[in-house]
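Supplementary Note 3. Input sequence used for the single-chain structure prediction.
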Amino acid sequence: TTTGLIGTLLTQAGKRPFVGGNIGTPLLDFFADPTAYGAAVLELSSFQLDLAGEFRPDIGLLLNVSPDHIDRHGSLAVYTAAKMRLFTHQQPGDTAVLGADDPEVDGARVPAGVAVHRFGTGEGCAARIDGPLVRLRLDGRDEEYDLGETRLHSSVNRQNAAAGILAAARCDCDRESIAAGLRAFAPPPHRMAEVATVGGVRCIDDSKATNIGALQAALAGCEAPVVLIAGGRDKGGDYALLREVVGARVKRLILIGEAASLMRAALAPVVSCESAGDMADAVRRAVGATEPGDLVLLAPGCASFDMFSGYAERGRVFADCVLRLQAERAGQGEVAA
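The predicted structure, written as discrete structure tokens, is reproduced below.
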């Protein structure tokens, strides 16, 4: 989301950005015609940073660190070190943008002479989140951006927006271009996307929540009681880290996929759990456990490859199941009438 947003903000400012990397468009496409672009905005995974050699970003953003890909890296410490390689080869005059609300990121060490700017909810942040507002205090600029006028008003997307605003400001984008880009930007699919309302219950697709941190963030942004659909292919994370937020926000947990038994063992002490055979079964069980005003949230906290080709297919199947159930209930209502 942040990568695409920065691309939109730079486009509004006439910077002609290439947007790609781990989000789908390979960097080789940039080199096919580099004169067509004025900047490159890249999302880089820990896998890519492991192999990135002397890669050096002019502006490097690290949003947060939570357990992910432990099956590959072996430990959270090794995974974190891979993420921190983003800054290893930066030089004086470059910029590091850090998520101050994450203690691991806030304490990141960068080379001498690199300008460090932070975003988050703290008073000292250059891009400070204050309710629906992002207040930018940077290089003599004193600006406010109202996310209530955008599709970036969720708690997760307020963080993404603050990071994007800060990066765009460091790229010399003016206030009008940033504001226009924020209004124009549509978050990518499968990221806290509302699918439909079934019997007074909103059904939300956050299939892109493929790790523990993303699942935590999704739940933290939910104000209504949640029936959660989670599970998939385990990535080596510690599901016990979810106990606090699950205990506070989730009224029923519907488990799918290979990691179901691991998640049940970790979370059964704090929430009622049941297993589903497939996504259609999971959706029916989830909606059946709700009351009007509740949420059904697909936020798996796991990879999708045990049941689907990727998180996008998982999200599409969830949406199809929700819409079929909605149509079925509407038809039953018409017959009863």
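The chain has 13 helices and 14 strands. The two ends are 44 Å apart (CA to CA).
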